[in-house]
Design a protein that fits this description.
Layout lengths: L9 H13 L4 H4 L1 H6 L4 E10 L2 E10 L3 H9 L6 H9 L2 E4 H4 L2 H6 L1 H7 L5 E10 L4 E10 L7 H7 L3 H29 L5 E5 L5 E4 L1 H8 L5 E3 L3 E3 L3 H18 L11 E4 L8 E11 L8 E10 L8 H8 L3 H11 L4 H8 L3 H15 L4 H9 L4
Antiparallel strand pairs: 1-2, 1-5, 3-4, 4-5, 6-7, 6-12, 8-9, 10-11, 11-12
């Protein structure tokens, strides 16, 4: 396949792409003439934010790509893309991904077989890759389908003199996007002190922030994982569906489609080890006002409690919070720790009927209509 004769001069090309970034047209639109000269099927601009070697966030702007394709890649497949992984490791420059990732290996990859091949997607890739000091990896990727010829030395030579300009515009675009990433880092710092796990989702169910507590839970590999879409994943199908409903309910309440949060907003995620399940609450956020938060942010906060390691509320705290007597506070603390009324009565050497009277008083003072309601209330408290 030959290169088009309509190759832009480096000077004219540079002026156009700098202007495109500054006036908001977008880099993907500005490099369309270069993509045409390379006779590509599609092209895309990626910004990938890494922290401690882990991909935290990605942004994708496509040329000739449908919005659902760029969203699907940005939210899910970029974390599984051998090209993106290799580009982050290779350093700066013009990369022919067919040399970095062997074609035979790429043909066996999940991203090709499950996502690209059914729609005749990108199979050959030529990439201009930049690494910024703040951990951002920027890529301008040019694609051809499996039916087209692979990129060769002629295409690489075409990109070489243009690379300095591509590099500067990628770094400029990264600086313009940095405010959003700095906000995410500030939120992460604010949530770091919480014992509960925190996953903050935007309205497209994409992860904005996670805190160290939830990352430690995920590292145990005991029924909990981070998912690009939806925030959390679990191998239990029923719990997975309940979690998706909880997030959906929270999003619906933001838009006013439901007036009250339904029961689906609280979900238990079973753990293969047999330990007590993770407890997840989905909370709608309307115009979040927090240091570092994007202005007017709306989304969903997932609060994850590891009941196995949670500090259960003690009797003095419960007595102060709800005006309980010493006997009622002792029973409430026992219920919060997972013991039954009968077990508590046996431990305290009192009649079960007496403990039931204490339970009735606790329910009256807390406003809980049932033992299940009381248990849920106590489950939200620590200390």
């Amino acid at each position: 396949m030959s290169i088009s004769a309509a190759t832009p001069s480096p000077e004219a090309f540079a002026l156009d792409i700098y202007a495109a970034v500054l006036d908001g047209r977008g880099l993907a639109a500005a490099i369309a003439p270069l993509a045409e000269a390379l006779q590509t099927s599609t092209h895309a601009v990626h910004l990938m934010q890494y922290e401690q070697g882990l991909l935290r966030e990605s942004r994708c702007e496509g040329g000739g790509l449908a919005l659902d394709v760029t969203n699907g890649y940005q939210d899910h497949w970029i974390y599984r893309d051998p090209w993106a992984i290799a580009a982050a490791r290779q350093g700066e420059g013009v990369l022919n991904m067919g040399r970095v990732v062997p074609v035979s290996a790429y043909r066996r990859s999940a991203i090709w077989n499950e996502w690209k091949a059914p729609r005749d997607g990108a199979f050959h890739c030529l990439s201009a890759t930049v690494q910024a000091p703040d951990g951002t990896v920027g890529r301008i990727a040019f694609h051809r389908s499996a039916r087209a010829a692979p990129f060769g030395p002629a295409e690489e030579a075409l990109l070489d003199p243009l690379f300095p300009h591509l590099r500067r515009t990628l770094l400029l675009q990264n600086r313009l996007a940095a405010d959003g990433w700095q906000a995410a880092r500030a939120l992460r710092t604010g949530f770091a002190a919480l014992r509960q796990g925190v996953v903050l989702l935007d309205r497209q169910r994409r992860i904005v922030v996670t805190n160290p507590a939830v990352e430690a839970m995920v590292a145990q590999r005991d029924g909990l994982a981070l998912a690009p879409e939806g925030g959390l994943a679990t191998p239990d199908a029923e719990a997975r569906q309940a979690l998706a409903r909880a997030v959906g309910s929270a999003l619906a309440s933001i838009s006013g489609k439901v007036k009250l949060m339904p029961d689906a907003a609280s979900v238990a995620l079973p753990r293969p080890s047999g330990a007590p399940p993770y407890l997840v609450q989905a909370m709608p956020l309307r115009r979040l006002d927090a240091p570092g938060a994007p202005e007017g942010f709306t989304g969903v906060m997932l609060l994850v409690t590891d009941d196995h390691s949670r500090a259960h509320p003690r009797a003095p705290l419960l007595r102060q919070a709800f005006g309980l007597t010493p006997a009622e506070g002792a029973l409430a603390a026992a219920l919060a720790a997972g013991r039954s009324v009968a077990q508590h009565a046996a431990t305290r050497k009192i009649a079960v009927a007496t403990a039931q009277d204490h339970l009735a008083a606790i329910r009256r003072k807390t406003g809980c209509r049932s033992l299940a309601d009381l248990t849920r209330l106590l489950g939200r408290m620590t200390g």
